[in-house]
Structure formats: structure tokens, C-alpha cells
Amino acid sequence: MPTIFSKIIAGEIPCHRIYEDDLVLAFLDIGPLSKGHTLVIPKEAKATLAELSDESAAAIGRILPRLCRAIVKATGCTDYNILQNNGPAAHQAVFHVHFHIIPRFPEAPTGQQGLGIEWESGKLPQEQAEALSEAIRAAL
Fold it and tell me: Helix or strand or coil: residue 81?
């Protein structure tokens, strides 16, 4: 099923393009959390990162650092978040893989500072960590 990102890739919906190659498109978010908030998407239409081909994932991995450097230089921010959600429980709203590069401006007025995150860490008992790490290695 086509998403808004599929339509942007196809040129059916305009965007403010920042970068494009055969596998990746980056453009400004139309609902930015801060100045320079950029979306980076693969042209391959997959809902989650786990579904994405190694080729598309590698292409995104190659361009993300360059885009971050350019956004830092262009906006004057020194800090930024990279956010990528997979599935409804992880707050994914558009079911096409996408990365947000969100510049942080702590001194900016509320609503323009960037991404706010609350993180409640838990504990990982040693025996659970051993079993879990073994299961993940086996799944690779």
C-alpha cells in the first residue's frame, strides 16, 4: 500500500529535497520539531528496518553522517537526535522506513527545542543477559 513517502519518491507530492541518489532520499520534515529537522528514507518501500535490504540499509548508513554534518553546519546546532521507529507500539506513524535527524536547540523557545525524551532504565540480571545475548547471536 502506497504511503506519503512513496508519493514523495514518485514526485506526486512535493518536498524540500536535501539529498537524493538511486537508493536514498532526504528532505525537510513538514512538521519539524526544530529548525533543520530532516527525514531520510530508502527508496525501497519497506515498513520496518528489519525488512529493509542490506543494500538500502548500507546506503542510508553511508549518507547519515554526511547529512548530520551538513545539518549541524547549516543550522548552527551542536547536538542532534537520530530517531527511527519500527511498528505502531514504537510510535511509527508512516509505515515506510524513515530516519529523523532532529537538531537540538536547548535555548530555543518551547516547541522549537527538538525531541524530548524520557527514559526509564530497568535492570538486566546476569543470567537473563547471558541467555538473551546467546539467543540474539543464534538468530544472526
Answer: strand
Phi and psi dihedrals of 96, rounded to 5?
Answer: -145, 125
The answer to pTM > 0.85 is yes
pLDDT digits (tens, 9 = 90+) for 49-74: 999 999 999 999 999 999 999 999 99
Residues 120, 93: contact at Cβ < 8 Å?
no
Domain ranges of the chain: 4-117
Catalytically annotated residue among 37, 96, 98, 100: 98
Q: Is 96 a catalytic residue?
A: no
3-state secondary structure labels for all residues of 94-122: CCCCCEEEEEECCCCCCCCCCCCCCCCCC
| CATH code reported for the domain at 4-117 | 3.30.428.10
